[in-house]
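Please go through this chain and its backbone structure tokens and walk me through the local backbone shapes. Keep your notes short.
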Amino acid sequence: MRACTVALLTLALVALPAAEAQAQTQQRVPKREGFWIAFGAGVGSNSDQAAAGARGGVAVDLRLGGSVTQQVLLGADLSGWARDQGGSTVSRANAVAAITYYPSATSGFYIKGGLGAASASVSGSVTTGGATTTVTTTSTGFGTTVGGGYEIQVGSNFFIAPSADILFQTINNHTSSVFLLTVDLMWH
């Protein structure tokens, strides 16, 4: 029994480097050229105690733009978060001009950041005299988005990209942040 175990371990130690080398030669290099688009959904949490009590909600994002090089993408990043709370819908969103950077041209890991506009909304129904009206209050300000993720190539130009983003917002001299975890579908 012991000889069998030693033989299997020896075989594994010999086969592992060979299998790893073969996998590296078969690995596809991502094509980041021209127009690209990504969209996704997930979950998020708002840090603003007054607006949403730092509770979870739904997160969505849409990103699109152009490739400058294999490692640099420029584009627009639209990210948002929403939550139903006490009969009202509370939401926050950023729309920024963003840069995405891949430290390695052959890896799927990326970091991103951008500057632009932020919005915060509360929408609810009000009943007056038997008539129900939806009232929405929206405030806008300055927004910054930072984040990162990893693209997993599943086709020649198609990727699945789990990502994490933080939306920083300054609206009416009040600063808050929203943390988002999404899974994007991306085409290069």
